[in-house]
Design brief:
This protein is an alpha+beta fold. The chain contains 27 helices and 20 strands.
Amino acid sequence: MSTQDFLVELGTEELPPKALRKLSDAFTSGILTRINQAGLKHGAHQSFAAPRRLALLIRDLETNQPDKEVERRGPAVQAAFDAEGNPSKAAQGFARSCGVEVSDLDRLETKKGAWLVYRSVEQGKATSELLPSIISASLEELPIPKRMRWGKSRTEFVRPAQWLVTLLGNDVVDCEILGLKSGRETHGHRFHYDQTIAIEQPADYQKLLARTGFVVADYESRKETIRQQVEAEAQKLGGVAVIDEDLLDEVASLNEWPSALSGRFDDAFLEVPSEALISSMKEHQKYFHIENDKGELMPHFITITNIQSKDPSQVISGNEKVIRPRLADARFFYETDKKTTLDANREKLKPVVFQKILGSVFDKTERIARLSSFIAKQEDGNADNAKRAGELCKSDLVSEMVLEFTDLQGIMGMYYAENDGEQPDVCKALNEQYMPRFAGDQLPTTLTGCAVAIADKIDTITGIFGIKQPPSGSKDPFALRRATLGVLRIIVEKKLNLDLRALIGKAVDGYKAQGVELPAGEELTETVLDFMLERFRAWYQGEGISAEVFLSVRALKPSCPFDFDQRVKAVAEFGNLPEALALASANKRVSNILAKAGDVVIPDVIDAGLITEAAEKNLHNVLSASIAEVTPLLAEGNYSAAMNQLASLKEPVDTFFDEVMVNVDDEKVKLNRYALLKQLRSLFLHVADISLLQAS
């Protein structure tokens, strides 16, 4: 079957930069999915995305659908003919629906009998006939939250559509989409080449746009060009460019023909915290900042322009004029904020609502302070500093700087606390309270910071569950899942011996102390604990640990995250031992035997006088020795060593089940054997329910 390259390009007004990549991916996926569904084979493909265009090039696309054999099954032969062999109404109706006579129908023999069938060949359509609906459907399904109209048309899209290119080989695919008649003419750069460019064949698209139209259509290529230019500019200035990937994506989505230029600002602005200057440059002007070899901010910036200027100095001068008042604003906010202490700002939090049932942000700081102090005491930290940090942790939210640059919350609190003369770890904690801010982010470096970060998150999780507004599906307005993972990461990675049940209980007490009634009632602590422990599932999945290992520990519901993690690691290691599967199976068998015992009271102590079988005696002796060896290991939390020791029980356990009958007629002997099995299972249950490993 013949093939041709296919190109589709939709030209628009400037597309939203933060959505460009997502729109391009969805456009490509939608078209390829439908082409595959149509049974059309093709070669490699390449997506293109620029501020004014979405495009897709598909190599070697079949120009016709293959013919398809169609088989329709009708009534059973038994119901299709009467005793004389005449066709029934069912057979006649089926034949009529197929457009043939009954005599033209075939028979299909199956195990369940014979059936009338109609077989035909459906001619494949020309690809050029299919493409218009494929493109239209893909555009209709793009993830566009809000569509717009333009001109007098009722057509809607994310931005006004301006031109449409659809080429299959050298031929235009004739169609009308979004009110545009298809053609072969694209458009060049809005300033460098504001003219149409005729594309003769799809393969010419990328090179022709770059060579003639001053447009780098490939998104990744444009992004890499910007990265290289920014790094080169920074090197010229003797520094290193700090390239934020989100910012890089955004500027790549704003420029078709990028050119990096560097500018300068007054050294005097460096007296302002660097984070404030960086935020101002990045958020307002989309500038990259530069650091020296000590990691200090340099008084330079790099901007990306969408033109190749004949006089770059004019462009640089213009950018320097624009950034100066921005940085001056940041300096003004900083100097103004320093005139008021965080203590004074804290009073301004009283009318600021955290949640209408849970009270104000001021109330929240009271609860955080109380819980932070408790956490610090548990870890032999400075409870007074933790309490103080908790009290001040939200005071910078009402500062001029944070009101202007919300991403600086916590960071500015740290600087203002230093200005107020607070203790060093109190100052640090005001920034560290929000850590980790995202997956993989750094954790607090101080115990005070850990205490406030955990307290803040636990307070929110408990409060929101307390008013019965837990996350549902993809909705998680208070980011409780992220907060939970943050708590777990801090406790596990910092090796803190904190008990979630105790922390949640203290959080509940904090609300009660303020007279806040939580509708969730007495079940709240266990509900929150279950939610938090369940977050471990995805954590371990990401580490390649099986769900069965997680569930074996989860079954015991240990509420100390660090202890939970130690158990999981030990069980995962145990699962790799050759004895693991047999012992898991034995534990499952023991569990079933004890469950079937019903309400029978099983003794806690084994009567050695009732042990008669050799295999029974051996298991009892080995088990007693294991208990003596494993007990101190369990007390130390050395679960790996304990599980390795318990692996030695495989042979005596196997022999016991091979040679000893548990459910004998003698009631005392039976109960004594139950007690032996109970002791065996209890020993493993000090770490995990390994019977659940059978499924892994």
